[in-house]
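Protein 1 of 2
SEQ + STRUCT:
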Amino acid sequence: MPSSKKPVLGLIVPCMNEAEVLPSSAQSLKSKLNSLAERGSIAATSKIYFVDDGSADETWAIISLLADSDDCFVGIKLTRNFGHQYAVYAGLMHAQGDALISIDADLQDDINAIDEMVDEYSQGNDIVYGVRVDRHSDRKFKRWTASLHYWISGLLGVRTIPNHADFRLLSRKAVSILSQYRETNLYLRGVVPLLGLQSSEVYYARSPRLGGESKYGLIDMLGLSAQGITSFSIMPLRVISIVGLVVFLISTGFGLWALYAAMAGLSTPIEGWAPTGIPIYLLGGLQILAIGVVGEYIGKTYMEVKSRPTYLIEKATVPTDSPKETY
C-alpha cells in the first residue's frame, strides 16, 4: 500500500527516432509533473526517463541536452535497437520512484489521464491500465486488425486488456515482481495481468501524433501479435492436432468408401486431376503451416534456453543501478 507521503513518480518514455517530437513531448511531460507536484499528488523529485532504443537520428543528442538543462530528465541509451517492449522494460528496471508510468514519446496517449492514474494508485491500486475509449484516430485497417488481434488472443486463452497498449502505471511492488519475469520473448501486455495485483482502469481518447510517423508498421504489429499468442498459449499446437485428427478421419472415411465401392463393383466418378490434385495441395499446405507453427515454438524455446540479455545499456545520464526493491 502506498504510504501517506507524496509518492515519487517516474515517467518511462521509450524513444526510437523521435527527434521530431521529443522537445515538445519533454516540455509537455515536465508541465504535467509540475502540475501534479503543485497540487500535492506527487513529490517534486519525480523524474522523466527517456530510453533511447537504438535511434539513428538526433534523439540521444536531444535527450542529453534535456538532461543537462534540467535534472528532472534522465537519459538511458541502449546499445542497439532491442524493440519497444524491451525499451519499456529497461526503463522500468532502472527508474527510481514509488510508481512508474510508461508512455510513448509521440504523446498520442492523453497525458491528462496520468492525473487519474496517480489518484487510482493513491487508492491502493498497484496496476492502473490506460484504456482507449475509441480508435477513431486509427485508420480503418488498423482498427480492424486490432479488433482481430484481441479476438484471436482471447479465443486462444491469452489474457490481455482490450484497447490497452503500454500506457500504464505500476507501483514499486508491481515492478519488483515484474523483475522476476526474465523472459527473452517479452510481451508486457500479457505479463502484467499475470502479476495478480490489485488493478484498475482509466479511460481516455487517443490524439494524433505530434509529428513524425508511427514506428509500428503492419509487420511489427503482426510480429507483436504472434509474440503474444505463442508466448502465452499452446492452443495453436492443439489446433494442429485437432486439424490432423479431422483430416485423418476424413481420409479414413474416403478410404473405406473407396474399398466398399471396389468390392461392390460400383462405378465412381473419380476422373481428372481435381479429386487427386486438390487434396494433395490442401494437405501439403496444412503440413507446411503446421511445421511453421511448431517451428515458431521451437524457435522461442531456442531463444529462451540461450538466456541472452533482453537489453544492454550503453550509457546513461545518471547511474543505472536498479533501485532497492522495497514495498
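Protein 2 of 2
SEQ + STRUCT:
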Amino acid sequence: MLIYRWLVALGRYLRLMGRTLTVPDRLRMFGRQYYQEIIQLGVNSIGIVLLISFFIGAVICIQIKVNIQSAWMPFWVSGYTTREIMLLEFSSSIMCLILSGKVGSNIASELGTMRVTQQIDALEIMGVNSANYLILPKILAMLTVIPCLVTFSVGSGILGAYATAYIGHIITPADLTAGLQHDFTQWFFWMGVIKSFFFAFIIASVSSYYGYTVRGGSVEVGKASTDAVVTSSVLILFSDMFLTQMLS
C-alpha cells in the first residue's frame, strides 16, 4: 500500500514537471517572475547562509585544534581540515539541507495558499499553464542562486576560521593560511557546485509539487509545507551519497 502511494506520487510529480518544463508563453512576464523569485528565494537567504557558515567554520577550526590536533600532527592541520569540510560537505550538502527548511517551506506554503484560495484554478480558467507560470521561475531561480550561495558559504566559513586566529588566538594566522593552501584540489570546489545544482532542483521542484497539489484548507497547507521539507531533505541526503560516489 505504501509503495503504491509512492508510485502514485511519483507519477503525479513527473506529470507536473512535464507541464512545468516547457517554454513560457510570455517571456517578458516570465523574466519579471524570475527576477522576483531570485530576490525572494536567493538574495533574502544570503544573510542566514553567511551567518551559519561563519560560525560553523569557526567551530570546526576550534574543534580540530583543541580536540584532535596533537604534537604528532603539523600545525596547519586545522586549516586544512576546515577547508576540506567546508568544500566537500557543509557548504553544498548541509547548507542545502538548511535552505530546504527555509526556502522549501516558503515555496510549498505560497503555492498551497494559492491553491486553497483558488488562485491557481483562476489561472487555469484563463487558459494559463499555471504550473509553468508559477513553478518554472522558482526552479530556474534556485538553479541560479544556490551555486552562488554555496560559494558565499565557503568564503564565510573561511572568514570564521580566520576569526578564531585573529580574535580567539586558537591558531596562528600563518598556520591557518598554510593549512588552507596545502594540497588544494580545485575539483573539490566544483564538485560542491555541481551537487548544488541537483539539490536546488530537488528543493524547488519537490516543494512546488507539495504546494501545488494541496487539497483542503489551511491545515493541509501546513502539512504540505512540512512534507515538502522532509521529503526534499531525504532526497538531498540520498542524492548526495550517489553524487559523491560518482564525482569523487
